């Protein structure tokens, strides 16, 4: 297992082997989640050299030179101007000397927290679709084995101010999806999120909570018992090191991890300005299927769901079958929809195939020009892919167009 | 006024002048609504020669010869094979000698019923989009002037088995649309339809009911008082002559008239198999905007609406503004969306413009290739039309694509 617990990262214990891992841990305390410049610099020159440059107080021009010398991708390096890098260094520097990093590591050890970095077997593959916005590392409490089930996970999110209707619908959805083998991802907030986790646990299912602050301090505090149970049965994840408080920004960035780590996102109940619409926006931007559960038009608590259906092309989902349809579990090798062409799987669908399959419905037949528009492919490419998929038995042609067959 | 009351059609009163009109009246008693062969023959050779051929017991081959001699459109004539025509004659013949026609005319006179035929100024223009399935004539009780307001009408339909929620939503929709100047079209059934008419009347609005049987016998009988009020304030229309009972087939055909006569159709509450989904299907087939109001997913009474949103691309509408958006009332010269190029209105949008406008949303910006796919036009044609519409101020370009501006 590549993942190590943080006490193995404390200086004095074989620092050479763990320097990159330690540096990434430090970066989670230095850069705010989603800091694109931190992501790019760490990606281009490595976390250790980047941290080392910061400690040596190298300026923006100097850091840019290091990036250029490392042969970093030209386009990215272009964006990494000396000025941009100097602004970033000005943001990061105040945190380098603070005791936060050390506190974070000792707290992490105390709470049996595991650090995961890209390349670790449990690293959620969906994160990679975030590009330079991907987390540099994440902190996990609970069962690392649960993270593998993110490959068959659905995010159930919604407003804190939930109604009885929303909670009922969420309970049914979470329990029903758990029964179908899905892991439930959510944000542990009051209302819909909490119900999603609770119902998953009640059905003995896997559930994963993403927090906007450190995993040592549960937020909201009223969900202390719930989060303790999630740690026991599933996992609690944060991009922030122990000791970090949640902020508005961190909540928004946390939402991108919920969307990126799951196969699909479903909004169960949300008002017109609910924060869960932000998660929906991330899912949509990542090309992940997005579903929304309608409710009474007389209920302001459902206005956000209706908005997603009307304005953001969210699929109207009314029961568990329709939710599962958004993220079909095929032969157990479910992929994040954004995975371009996974290695070691000769028979996995190509990128075009995935896009065509995503553009198809299992119920409403669609003409090839419609599929082409939805998939963003040429009609000719769509026809070629449909031919191949028909041979495979994945799709079928009907009088009114093409249908995706249900996964068997 | 071209429309005449049926007593003017009784034989003996200037038969030459009214023979075509009389023949059409007779055809409404001879052919079932939507009989494509009746529609084609009457269209190609005229109602009087067609009726005359029937009375003379001319056979299928003979009737085909008459059609060919009249220079009827070749393609249509091809379809009108001697065999097909003989089958049709076999259907029609039993009704030619029946007293139904005479009874229908005398009943019509008694109930102050007006016969309308294509070309009459009050003839609903939307009917023409039905092609050979257009009614040969319709019978009207009430105020003929109301029929002109079909140019700014919305059909509000739904299930007989309505819930309190559905009735509430329908009441709000009908009253709100009346306030915005729309005429409310519906089918006078129990439940949603009845509430749509009632709320329109309560708001002193125009409302029109389409019946599946004769306008002399109100159906359902429990809506006798309601239909009497609709006759007083609006109009009641049927394709069937007086004395006809409603049948399953006639309900389905009546639905096509509701969809064709209105600018848009909205389903307010409908179960999975509600007959109102048939009206929705007609609206969709005619290219009319289709809206559906979502409801609780826990209510079987809303399952049909959710089905329309999921499978038939109905727009999710949650308030009166969104409903009105489906059929914007512009400068008072609203058109049936299918009107190809109305005469006498130099500034009215061309067919392509109507299709492009229909393909736009006032909220979700759309790229031109998306609009092209929705409108069934080439991208180049869409770009040209968008340019013209932008000059007019009807559309606007945003970062993510084109928006339709709200009618002012």
Main attributes of the structure:
homodimer, 408 residues, alpha/beta, Arc Repressor Mutant, subunit A, 9-stranded mixed β-sheet, two-stranded antiparallel ribbon, 11 strands, globular, disordered N terminus, DprA_WH (chains A, B), DprA (chains A, B), WH-like_DNA-bd_sf (chains A, B), DNA-protecting protein DprA (chains A, B)
What does this 3D model show about the protein?
In chain A, strand 3, helix 9 and strand 4 form a beta-alpha-beta unit. Chain A has 3 domains: 89 residues, no CATH class; 184 residues, 3-Layer(aba) Sandwich (Rossmann fold), CATH 3.40.50; 54 residues, Winged helix-like DNA-binding domain superfamily/Winged helix DNA-binding domain (Arc Repressor Mutant, subunit A), CATH 1.10.10. In chain A, 47% of the residues lie in helices and 11% in strands. In chain A, the strands form 2 sheets. Chain A has a 9-stranded mixed beta sheet, sandwiched between helices. In chain A, strands 10-11 form a two-stranded antiparallel sheet. Chain A has 408 residues and is of the alpha/beta class. The N terminus of chain A is likely disordered. At the A-B interface, helix 9, helix 14, strand 9 and helix 17 of A face helix 9, helix 14, strand 9 and helix 17 of B. Chains A, B: Belongs to the DprA/Smf family. Chains A, B: Pfam families: DNA_processg_A, WHD_DprA. Chains A, B: It comes from Lacisediminihabitans changchengi. Chains A, B: This is DNA-protecting protein DprA.
